[in-house]
Design a protein that fits this description.
The complex is a heterodimer of chains A (627) and B (215).
Chain A (H helix, E strand, L loop, with lengths): L1 E6 L5 H7 L7 H8 L1 E6 L6 H10 L3 H4 L5 E4 L2 E4 L10 H7 L4 E4 L11 E4 L1 H6 L11 H5 L20 H4 L3 H26 L4 E5 L2 H9 L10 H7 L2 H20 L3 E7 L2 E2 L16 E2 L1 E7 L7 E2 L3 E2 L3 H8 L54 H18 L3 H14 L4 H13 L3 H9 L9 H13 L3 H14 L4 H13 L3 H14 L4 H13 L3 H14 L4 H13 L3 H14 L4 H15 L2 H18 L10
Parallel strand pairs in A: 1-7, 1-8, 2-12, 2-13, 5-6, 5-7
Antiparallel strand pairs in A: 2-11, 3-4, 8-11, 9-10
Chain B lengths: L13 H8 L24 E6 L1 E6 L12 E4 L7 E4 L7 E6 L7 E2 L7 E2 L9 E4 L14 E7 L6 E9 L5 E8 L7 E2 L3 H12 L13
Antiparallel strand pairs in B: 1-2, 2-3, 3-4, 5-6, 5-8, 5-9, 7-12, 9-10, 10-11
The chains are: A alpha/beta (627), B mainly beta (215).
């Protein structure tokens, strides 16, 4: 089986639906009709190198060790290359099974000497020969490179409403550069697809993420001046059509027997969620990208449950005909497949996986702009690793990094707040509160400090105090889904479910894809014994983020109350698959197996876990809700 | 109690079903505009003459060649004009007129991808004629094409003029084209024209030469 894996940063299904329009090729429509699709969550900050490495290693940055574009190598600073990952990547696994990969425009410098061909971004951006895994390709691929100056202006007409007025504007140069680069990537890809023997094509189209910060403000409804919008409103729709056609072209060349996996680790803000025109690139990103699969064995018309970036590698392995890798945090998106199948055409067991090495760099050691200053880079890499560990739930691992950073720069507010979050996660609430309160002097109303203090109050079951802090945060963060969601949670604790729902509704009005708000709604519906609505809200949360553990739990509770006991057991089992120590789920399962399914062995197993942890949890008030 | 999966109270079950399944373990481009002869911008067969009021002087000619016809839009509104034969040879040059919004009729636009020939006329509300104003609202924004035909009956050429009412409410010609062969319909540029250009960009190595500047 062959696989094409394409990463299109910035792409998401709502963007396609709003601005993608209709198109004869319509690969996007085809994947939704004949394949599986859904949302994909990456992580923040959304930096190319760590995101790309997580996609192909199945691990998060703390494990693969890549946190940005630059690397400290002893006293040297050099660009990061894909071989710096501490974990084997997809091309290594493919090589171990005797097959070849085409890796095109994948982040990092220089190229890797992969089994197959590697064409790095430096080749497209600067013509650097170290961007090629095989220098023999230099002449042939040079003919396929296109820069903005050499491109026929007519190629830009689909993007422009008024070519004559647009021509002299600086935006045209940005557009031309991005479009020419895309054409170069596509030309190189199609040539190599035809002349090489390959099993994996790993490719990146970054057209949307390059264009969105400059042109998304002009997409309807325009944020900028109407006259400007008239000039540029066609750029993003045309870029979406171009990607649609490009994917269709790859599919056409590859044939029906090739599987296709389209991914994006973040989306693009649109409509009222857009930042002000001119905002930095990160401000245009949303937390959720997309996933789409087609090919042999993929179920038609299926929606995947909220996928995580670590789910892509197991899914890709399945599409390549390999068994699911073990000891990886992600799951294969098995709901996307027609059968549960465990075909293992190319088993991972056998000879150890050899890692691809970087090609020697003979020219200038970098291809980026000037590298950052060494100590500044060291601090930034530590900060990113700490954030990555916090996001992955490894507060203990983040702590020494944050403490070191805080000691070195006590005035760095971001670090102090991260440290407060970290200490709270480790149960050191008093210390966390001290750090957070330090912000609230001289009338400063740092909303993140109020959020942390509110969480501490919530944990200590003082919802009214928590609400005071959340309302303070709301004063300066009126459009924060997180703040509104926390307000809802505080009301839940006081069993004021109507006010709670209002909070969650406001959160969802700001961000309809905020999974904790859907989960909060499920809890609110449960409080009011609207169990069917609780099911809907819990499913909505899981739809967005499969790892929203509490949503599986609340789904289980609601289903049990509806006397859908078999499904309820499944939901609690899903909850425990994600968080094995969730004691409330064990409590429910012990009861359900004892009173409903009659599986006394299972009941005893869960009860044993409950009894072991019972004393610790006695004060938490977590008890099974009555069936 | 039983373990069946039938809800006694209703809620959407489709998503629940898939949730439960988790616990089980050549260049695409077609040159759609091949028949369209776009007149180079410097040699448009039409021009706007601003004589206090905007009106169109419709001057069809072979590019670079001698004028074959010369007509004027006599001004009626600040935006348009009435399409009148300059030399009085009524019936040889016409635009498409609609009575849909005005009983007396008004020059009307067609959208992208519209085939222009005699069949555009509709006995109920659309007809070919040579004496009607342009409705500025009809041409507000982009991608509005004014269908034209000229020449004697049974030997007519078809064409279009792309007009736009700009934000400052000026009339602007964006494009014009005509089919050089008589009695052959012409199609206004459609999204397929854009798609042809995009298809070349998406086409890869086979199309890359077509993307290069020719000068």
């Amino acid at each position: 089986m062959r696989l094409i894996l394409v990463d299109v940063p910035g792409l998401d299904w709502p963007l396609i639906d709003t601005l993608g329009g209709e198109h004869p090729a319509s690969w996007f429509s085809d994947v939704r009709r004949n394949g599986a699709h859904g949302a994909l969550t990456g992580f923040v900050p959304a930096i190319d190198e760590p995101l790309a490495t997580s996609l192909v290693s199945g691990q998060r940055p703390p494990e693969h060790g890549i946190h940005g574009a630059w690397r400290l190598d002893g006293e040297q600073i050099r660009p990061q290359h894909a071989g710096d990952s501490r974990c084997p990547c997809l091309w290594d696994t493919v090589a171990a099974s005797g097959r070849q990969s085409l890796v095109i425009d994948w982040p990092g410098f220089p190229a890797l000497e992969v089994s197959g061909v590697w064409v790095a971004p430096a080749w497209f951006d600067h013509g650097r020969v170290e961007g090629l895994s095989d220098p023999v390709l230099t002449r042939e691929l040079t003919e396929l490179r296109l820069d903005a100056a050499a491109m026929n202006p007519a190629s830009l007409l689909p993007f422009l409403r008024d070519p004559q007025r647009s021509a002299r504007r600086p935006e045209s140069a940005v557009l031309a550069s991005a479009v020419a680069r895309h054409a170069s990537v596509q030309s190189t890809t199609t040539r190599l697809m035809k002349r090489e023997d390959w099993s994996l094509l790993l490719l990146r189209y970054d057209l949307i993420s390059r264009l969105a910060p400059r042109f998304m403000a002009h997409a309807p409804p325009a944020l900028a001046q109407e006259s400007e919008a008239e000039l540029w409103s066609g750029v993003i729709p045309a870029a979406l059509r171009l990607i649609d056609l490009s994917l269709a072209r790859l599919a056409e060349l590859a044939g029906d027997e090739t599987a296709f996996l389209l991914v994006s680790c973040f989306g693009t803000r649109q409509g009222s969620r857009r930042p002000s025109p001119g905002a930095p690139a990160a401000a245009w990103q949303t937390e959720q990208g997309l996933v789409g699969l087609t090919g042999p064995g993929v179920a038609p018309g299926v929606r995947t449950w909220g996928a995580d970036i670590t789910d892509i590698l197991p899914t890709a392995m399945r599409l390549l005909g390999s068994g699911p890798p073990e000891r990886l945090p992600g799951r294969c998106l098995q709901e996307a497949f027609l059968s549960a199948g465990t075909a293992n055409e190319y088993p991972l067991e056998g000879p150890p996986i050899e890692r691809a090495q970087a090609v020697p760099v003979t020219g200038a050691p970098t291809c980026h702009d000037a590298p950052p200053e060494r100590s500044e880079l060291a601090r930034e890499l530590d900060r990113r690793e700490a954030m990555a560990r916090l996001q992955a739930g490894d507060a203990a691992g983040a702590r020494p990094l944050l403490e070191r950073l805080h000691q070195a720069a006590p005035d760095d507010r971001r670090i102090q707040l991260h440290l407060a979050r970290c200490l709270f996660a480790l149960g050191e609430s008093a210390h966390a509160a001290d750090l957070a309160r330090a912000f609230l002097v001289d009338g400063d109303q740092e909303p993140r400090a109020h959020l942390i203090l509110g969480l501490i109050e919530l944990e200590q079951r003082r919802p009214d105090h928590a609400l005071t802090h959340f309302f303070q945060a709301e004063q300066t963060c009126t459009d924060s889904a997180i703040v509104h969601s926390r307000i809802g949670e505080a009301y839940l604790l006081t069993r004021r479910s109507e006010e709670a729902r209002r909070g969650f509704e406001r959160a969802l009005a700001v961000d309809p894809h905020h999974a904790p708000a859907h989960d909060g709604m499920a809890r609110a519906w449960l409080q009011d014994e609207h169990d069917e609505l609780a099911v809907e809200s819990a499913l909505a949360a899981i739809d967005i983020d499969y790892r929203q553990v509490s949503a599986h739990f609340h789904l289980g509770v609601a289903l049990a109350r509806l006397e859908r006991f078999g499904e309820s057991v499944s939901a609690f089992n899903q909850c425990l698959a994600l968080e094995p120590n969730r004691i409330e789920a064990h409590q429910w399962l012990a009861e359900l197996h004892r009173r409903v399914t009659g599986d006394l062995l299972q009941s005893a197993r869960h009860q044993h876990i409950v009894d072991q942890r019972g004393r610790e949890d006695e004060g938490s008030g977590s008890r099974p809700l009555p069936i | 109690m039983s373990t069946d999966n039938t809800s006694r109270r209703g809620f959407t079950t489709g998503r629940m079903t898939t949730y439960l399944s988790l616990s089980a373990a050549s260049v695409i481009a077609t040159d759609a505009a091949a028949e369209v002869v776009h007149i180079p911008a410097g040699n448009l067969p039409v021009e706007i003459i601003n004589n206090d009021q905007l009106f169109l002087r419709f001057s069809l000619r072979a590019p670079g060649g001698e004028n074959l016809y010369d007509f004027e839009f006599a001004p009626e509104t600040a935006y348009g004009g009435t399409f009148m034969p300059f030399s009085g040879n009524q019936g040889t040059a016409q635009i498409l007129v609609s009575t849909e919004n005005r009983p007396a009729g008004v020059a009307t636009s067609v959208g992208p991808g519209t085939t222009i020939d005699d069949s555009l006329a509709d006995p109920n509300d659309r007809f070919w004629s040579n004496g009607y104003a342009i409705d500025p609202d009809d041409f507000d924004g982009s991608r509005h094409y004014l269908p034209v035909r000229f020449g004697p009956q049974d030997n007519r050429n078809y064409g279009f003029i792309e007009l736009e009412i700009t934000p400052d409410r000026s009339l602007r010609i964006l494009d014009a084209a005509w089919e050089t062969l008589p009695e052959v319909p012409i199609t206004t540029p459609s999204s397929a024209l854009d798609d042809a250009a995009l298809s070349a960009l998406a086409g890869g190595d086979e199309a890359v030469d077509s993307l290069r500047r020719q000068d």
